[in-house]
Amino acid sequence: MIHRAPNYLLYLNVLVIATCGLIYELLAGTLASYLLGDSVTQFSLIIGVYLSALGVGSWISRYVETRVARTFIEVEIALALLGGLSAPILFVAFAHIAWFRILLFGSVFAIGILVGLELPLLMRILRDHLDFRELVARVLTFDYVGALVASILFPILLVPRLGLVRTSLLFGLLNAVVGLWGTYLLRPLLSQRGLAGLRGRAFLVMGILVVCFIKADTLTLWTEEAILQTPIVYTKQSPFQRIVVTEDRGAFQLHLNGHLQFNSRDEYRYHEALVHPAMTAMVDPRRILVLGGGDGLAVREILRYPSVESVTLVDLDPAMTGLADAFPPLAELSGHALSDPRVTVINRDAFVWIDESDQTFDAVIVDFPDPGSYSVGKLYTTRFFNLLRQRLSDQAVISVQCTSPLVAPQSYWCILNTLRAAGYDALPYHAAVPTFGVWGFALASTRPLKLSADGGPELASALPQGLRFLNRSNLASLFQLPVDVQPVETLPNRLNDQVLVRYYDQEWRSGG
Amino acid sequence: MLAYLAGVPLLGLAGCDGGRAFSFSGDLLNPNYSVAHRLRDGWRPPPPEGDPGGRRVVIVGGGIAGLAAAWQLSRRGVEDFVVLELEDRPGGTAISGQDGEFRFPWGAHYIPAPMKENRDLVALLEEMDVIVGRTTDGEPVVGEAFLCRDPSERLCVDGRWHYGLYPDQDATESDLRQLERFQQKMIELAHGRDDRGRRLFAIPMATGSDSAKVRALDRQSMAQWMTDNGFDSPRLRWLADYACRDDYGLTLEQTSAWAGLFYFTSRIPAEGTESQPVITWPEGNGRVVRHLAEHCGDRLIGGQTVVKVQNQGEGVRVEAVDNAMLASVAYVADRVIFAAPQFVAPHVVADWNASGRSINSFHYGGWVVANLRLSQRPSERLTEMCWDNVFFDSRSLGYVTSTHQVGLDHGPTVITWYQPLLDDDPRVSRAELMRLDWSDWARVIVSDLRKGHPDIESLIERLEVMRWGHAMIQPRVGFVFGAEREQAAKPIGRVHFAGTDLSGIALLEEAFSRGVSAANAVVQADPKSRA
Ligand SMILES: Cc1cc2nc3c(=O)[nH]c(=O)nc-3n(C[C@H](O)[C@H](O)[C@H](O)COP(=O)(O)OP(=O)(O)OC[C@H]3O[C@@H](n4cnc5c(N)ncnc54)[C@H](O)[C@@H]3O)c2cc1C
User: Fold this and answer.
1) Which EC number(s) does UniProt give (chain A) (predicted)?
2) How many interchain CB pairs under 8 A, A with B?
3) Are A351 and B407 inside 8 Å of each other by CB?
4) B515 Cα: distance to centroid of ligand 1 (angstroms)
């Protein structure tokens, strides 16, 4: 008889059930605020939907008249499957389906109903064996203890150690264990018929969850989970990329497809180094082209020069060039650069635009993402730099962001060698950006670049007012390469043989 | 039937799929065979009115071969020619299409970069600014924009994409050893010379060896050759089978070993170990067609089906039916270059039967080519979309992406899907081609693409299907070095022949070279004729 099972086992059951229930709710809330942004709204919505579903579940329990024990076990197995797979399914679905919210709230509601069914059923099973007063007190106590356990484990242990997907799968497994265990514990209350099937299903569900648990790493969105450590304040999935802004100690960080782009705390170092060497290399640059750089921060630096008449910014993603509107702190950080009347924004693949355009520019700031894919790698090919040449005025100077020369020396020097193979005179230079470490750039021109006595490029115009990082003398020092940043021989990156993407992949995978 | 008679491509009954509707629509297309079918059914065109137009050369057919002949005639100073083409637009099996900003191929879509020995093709590509220079040893340098962009190809096995075409997942030591030995063998064959110093396999094929040893290869299948040479690795055989299906529309068993080895060896340079890189354009070889057609100007006349070519004394009489008006036009030419496929010749060339020829061994395979306009790229995980995207476990050849060479990697695109019909009897394939309707093909194509792109169906905006009944000549066992092919290339009186089928393999290089050779022959035959 069920009496023979020690009481603590029954309470352990309650504890596990309660923990699982709260974990699913926390998972859904976290996932929603992570994927959809605006965590306050997401969390309140999830809690609301979940609590009302609990009510519906409890209410439905009254319609279970016979075979209460079997129903309880069925509920556990169903919950194991639904709750356990909730995070992986939602993560994958987010990238692929348009009606994500329906799926999200639908699954939260369904899980809520199942969890709502659990305790009433369990209490009915136990009521013949315990004094009612005792029963209510104990069960509710363990229920609340379970909630406490969940709420402590979730942020401290589960999310940082396991991540959302594995947490979800792990607690699904626990539900399945409770279900399976129930078939033994409640054996006297179950008919023989269908018992094997019940156990079979429990094992099947456990099998599925275990396989998913082992395979969880291959879920692509895994990488993005890493950045969950800091709170997300804005997120958007554009057709081109996932844009996530996090906030940490009073500064914000932009991530594209999980790769950190800048930290508002020290981005000025990066952008000053990217922009000013090219802008000061000629007298009164007037027409400027920015490729990539949809955040507007490079444009902010360019607009410091009174000689600038027009800035054309070509960035693939309207969601990126519109980010300053959607996320006001960025507008402020960029000094509302993209709303300046001198600035024209074009959303087009730069590779295509550069061939279609017939304008020429005095300076070009090339601020593409790192060449981590072939579709970006094409923007660092001899073909691209040859096309770019047609967009350059006579004296034009360009600067190119070139990834880290320390972490990825082959990639860095490959970009310089590619520029040279395309007929440019190219100077390597670097700057320290705390968030990234040592960062690499190239200054290039189709004419020989003039050098000054201090080894830096000759400054044809003065640095503008208001810089926080550069002055005349440390600008020159950017061009003095440290001993650990010395030229490496590489092939040039060609459109039909993108060695750069392979170098980059190797170097960042092993070193980054 | 009405649609055939009217000469308009058949419109598919869009959206019906045995009760399940697709959310997209499209047309079911085919080459225009309305006049051909009418002739077959006993219809006789009205006699031509007025005096026949005199021309030094009339070229029948505006495919690559006919257009190349016209181009070469000009280069040799002969400007008095016309090209009569059955379709409204030139190109034959190298035509292309356009939809807004997208251009895409309907057939031929690439050429391997020619080596310096292929002088005429090099000259053409120089004229097109595709070849932009020479290396110190005189090898052509192709402009970076035209070499197939990296990543060029990938293979989908069990729903997972991997770069490259060799199915290397779970390949054993022995698989890899065989692959390497096979590659070594191909290099060896590419570097081999016969006792007259010719390459064993060269492009154009007529410049390669015809020694007994080489001819013998044509008498066995590629499958047999691989078995005889100890190449039994299933992975390697898949790769070779894919190559045969891709280039010839034949299986490993159906392809002559000569043709199979030709594919793997003819593009390896004398000093090199790698095959020549691939040249491609968004519209495929349609770019070459456009260039050659522009050169012809108004001497290229579309919508003209040539129904009769007859040697008459010092000239040749040519009769054509204007497809639009169904009126006849006659020409009298010093010489004719017949650059339509050989299967047309018996019906058109008057002296053909008397010449004692036969084309029983000329087999032309059926192909289906579909162009799909996508609203978005399918979502990708392990790889990025390539130019050539192939499914391991499929009868299709996969698809090429038209925007790949442009550098557009996001948003809408057009992809071109290919499938040869592999029946042993091509007539069975042609019957099947005509039997299946648009929704049959849509179902086949969507379920094929779904193997690598589970979300594909929701992305398709249009799907157009081209049915090529006589898509390309098939180098089956014994054909290439058979008597019929060698005979077919010879002139009948003042009628010279061109066309890729005379080479036994369907390649731009061959069609081009046949066209150029025919033009050269015409110029040499009567150098001082009226210009
Ligand atoms: C699906 C497909 C894919 C291919 N892919 C490639 C590839 O990637 N690379 C490659 O090199 N090759 C490829 N090929 C082969 C290539 O298309 C041919 O080798 C080449 O273009 C053939 O040219 P052609 O002029 O010899 O023949 P065709 O292209 O067949 O041209 C013959 C022309 O004659 C016309 N004609 C026929 N009868 C008459 C008549 N009575 N009067 C007037 N005109 C007539 C036809 O309309 C046609 O335009 C492919 C072929 C197909 C079908």
Assistant:
1) 2.5.1.16
2) 52
3) yes
4) 12
Using a CB-CB cut-off of 8 Å, the residues of chain A touching B379 are 95-96
CB distance A448 to A468 below 8 Å: no
Q: Decide if domain A266-511 falls under CATH 3.30.1130.10.
A: no
Task: Locate the domains of chain B by residue range.
Answer: 34-97+284-362+476-525
Class of domain A6-218: mainly alpha
* Whole-angstrom distance, CA of residue B237 vs CA of residue B243: 10
Burial class (CB in 10 A: 0-12, 13-18, 19+), A325: exposed
Residue A388 · residue A424 · CB < 8 Å: no
Looking at the complex, does the CB of residue B410 fall below 8 Å from at least one CB of chain A?
yes
- Closest CA of chain A from B405, distance in Å: 10
**Is A350 labelled as part of a ligand binding site?**
yes
Q: Which two tokens stand for residue B416?
A: 């071109």
DSSP result, A285-347: --EEEEEE-TTSHHHHHHTT-TT--EEEEE-S-HHHHTHHHHSHHHHHHTTTGGGSTTEEEE-
| DSSP strand pairing (B327-338 vs B53-60) | parallel
Domain B34-97+284-362+476-525 matching CATH 3.90.1150.10: the answer reads no
Round to whole Å and give the CA distance between A429 and A448.
16
Strand partners of residue B400: B388, B416
Adjacent-strand bridge partners of A428: A442
**Alpha carbon distance A124, A119 (integer Å):** 8
- Among B93, B288, B319, name the best residue to mutate to test ligand 1's pocket (greatest count of ligand atoms within 8 A of Cβ): B93
Give the C-alpha separation, A393 to A361, whole Å.
5
Measure the CA–CA gap between B255 and B476, rounded to whole angstroms.
5
Does residue A359 sit in helix, strand or coil? Answer: coil
Whole-angstrom distance, CA of residue A59 vs CA of residue A37: 33
B409 CB within 8 Å of a chain A CB: yes
Instruction: For an interface test with A, give the residue of B150, B161, B375 to mutate (most A CBs within 10 A).
Output: B150
- From first to last of the 531 residues of chain B, give the pLDDT tens digit: 333 333 333 333 333 444 468 999 999 999 998 888 887 788 888 888 888 889 999 999 999 999 999 999 999 999 999 999 999 999 999 999 999 999 999 999 999 999 999 999 999 999 999 999 999 999 999 999 999 999 999 999 999 999 999 999 899 999 999 999 999 999 999 999 999 999 999 999 999 999 999 999 999 999 999 999 999 999 999 999 999 999 999 999 999 999 999 999 999 999 899 999 999 999 999 999 999 999 999 999 999 999 999 999 999 999 999 988 788 999 999 999 999 999 999 999 999 999 999 999 999 999 999 999 999 999 887 899 999 999 999 999 999 999 999 999 999 999 999 999 999 999 999 999 999 999 999 999 999 999 999 999 999 999 999 999 999 999 999 999 999 999 999 999 999 999 999 999 999 999 999 999 999 999 999 876 544
Cis omega (within 30 of 0) for bond into A277: no
State the catalytic residues of A. 367
